[in-house]
Amino acid sequence: MKFLSIDDMPDVAGKRVLVRADLNVPIADGRVTDATRLFAAQATLATLADRGARVLVLSHFGRPKPGDRSLSLAAIAPALREVMGRPVSFVDECVGPEAEAAVAAMAPGDIMVLENARFHAGEEANDPAFVAALARLGDFYVNDAFSVSHRAHASTEGLAHVLPAFAGRTMEAELEALAKALGRPEHPVAAVVGGAKVSSKLDVLVHLVTRVDHLMIGGGMANTFLAARGVNVGKSLCEHDLAVTALDILARAEAAGCTVHLPYEVVVARQFAANAPHRSCNVHEVEADEMILDLGEAAVEALADALKTCRTLVWNGPLGAFETEPFDTGTVALARIAGALTQSGGLVSVAGGGDTVAALNHAGVAAQFSYVSTAGGAFLEWMEGKALPGVVALERGH
């Protein structure tokens, strides 16, 4: 896709730039516990401020109920100030006379956080009147929040149609990485898809079998495919009612020339607990009272052999119950192989989704991947092949 980045912006000295960032971070006892998203916003905000722009930061925070003002971004502004290493002010409104007066008082290079956009019903409704009220505060619009761009809200989509629109640094990096992964990838392409349930990733699987050369299925969803093929998976997590759907996906893959890799060696246990007694076995040897909780060593080696023939990898979801040792072994082993292949220059690797980020961090290889997206729903919808409203609006940008 074609879009304009902040490098394409005209002189912004003294101009008002509305930046949609994602400041929706976890807080405990009034303090931010994970500042990852704040650090992600840093490059764009600093670049614009250094160019003399009056930088206005738009975001949502949580899901406030009508009339509830407790979810205020006032708690986030000090943390952003710490991350930025420069003054960051806050105004307790995002539209109207109070916000407009605060913006008018800003000096070039100032950064100010506007109050939670979701305090107004017009945000999620993408109400044109609310969009116009926001637009009155700015001369330019920058979207730096891929993670919320699957939502057609006023601050994520509406503003791009009424102000000159540009992609921020984080958005630009995300879109370029995703284009390399599935938009215009170098083949062969592999996709690792794991997680608990097939039902949560049906659209992902249907889309991927037409786009990738190797589809590697792990986690609880692999059990559904195994059961559909007549394998007795014992007490394993399994959606038996989706057997027909699973067989349909396998048929689609075969028709598209996509090789589906299901585990043939698995790690099983009679109870799901840390360091529970366990064994490795062939999938046809699972006992009626056992649960499949991870891939076996031979199954991981087979996936690694296939991965070594590939040039591109997209990863979403763990291969086993990675939060509980020793059932993290398969995910960690394959992640480390993917990281090493990436570092050697043989593989472009893009991963995303909450559990995936946690698994790669657990394996100590997140930094070795080409790109790791912290976007959850937006990344999943992209993997489903859906158009993301906030991204499409940038494509149509002025």
3D structure, described in words:
The protein is of the alpha/beta class. Helix 11 crosses helix 12. The two termini are 15 Å apart.
Task: Label this structure with key terms.
Rossmann fold, alpha/beta, 398 residues, 14 helices, 6-stranded parallel β-sheet, elongated, 2 domains
Q: Please state how the strands of the largest beta sheet are arranged side by side.
A: 5-6-4-1-7-8
The CATH topology assignment of the largest domain is Rossmann fold
CATH homologous superfamily heading of the largest domain? Phosphoglycerate kinase, N-terminal domain
The level-1 CATH class of the largest domain:
Alpha Beta
Q: Identify low-pLDDT runs.
A: none
CATH architecture of the largest domain: 3-Layer(aba) Sandwich
> Can you tell me the overall shape?
elongated
Number of domains: 2
Beta strand %: 15-25%
Number of strands: 17
Average pLDDT works out at 94
Largest sheet composition: 6 strands, parallel
Measured between the Cα atoms of the first and last residue, the distance is: 15 Å
Compute the gyration radius: what is it?
23 Å
Number of helices: 14
Oligomer classification: single chain
- Overall structural class, as computed from helix and strand content, comes to alpha/beta
How much helicity do the residues have? Answer: 25-40%
